[in-house]
Write a structure and sequence with these properties.
41% of the residues lie in helices and 26% in strands. The protein contains three helices and five strands. The radius of gyration is 12 Å and the shape is globular.
Length: 76
Amino acid sequence: MMKTTAVIYRSNSGFTEKYARWIAEEADADLLEADGAKLENLLRYGTIVYGGGLYVGGINGVKLITAIGRNWRIKS
């Protein structure tokens, strides 16, 4: 059965990965590392949870999520 929720993460130190695994387990969601996630594969999910480290320049990897958001609007 295909899951409808994905937890995507980008982790430099391992902390974000730890929490992403926990959230995915509790939510019965697919767990995906952001670097391996392809936009066309992510569009099938109804819910996407994203985790990335917060740095002065912003959230690590947030460009992937904004790209998904733009494409979701086109798909809907």
